[in-house]
Amino acid sequence: MRTEIDSFSGNRIYPGRGSLYVRGDSKVFRFVSSKSASLFLQRKNPRKISWTVLYRRMHKKGVTEEVSKKRSRRTVKHQRAIVGASLEVIKEKRSIRPEARKAARTESIALAKEKKKAAEAKKKAEKAKVKAAGTAGKVSKQQMKGSAPKVVPRSH
Prior knowledge:
Layout: E1 4-5, E2 12-13, E3 19-22, E4 28-31, H1 34-41, H2 53-58, H3 87-95, H4 98-134, H5 141-145
Antiparallel strand pairs: 1-2, 3-4
């Protein structure tokens, strides 16, 4: 005895049951009942209709074998050295008291500010020196950069 499978619901169709629907492109669809044929023609999604085989498969209904859940491995945290700092240095820095850390931070900030001020003062002095020397011959910015002099157009 040959059984067919319903194109919509996925149920078996025994001989003498169901109907056949042939679409314009000659594709054959078999339905066990007018209910499944109607839902197919309404373009309903069988995965969203709870009594179809596709829905039951998708939602893992009626599976006889209970597969034990796969155990996920717990992630283990490791301390690793970073480029430029060994593990000992990192641990040492972590163990420093917050007050000491704050003091070191403010000190380094002050040092950086001082350095910046010195650099600006140096730059200002250099600028003043250039200005004093540059009053004799005025040179445009483009000439300072070393661009070629303008070509004067001549008529033939």
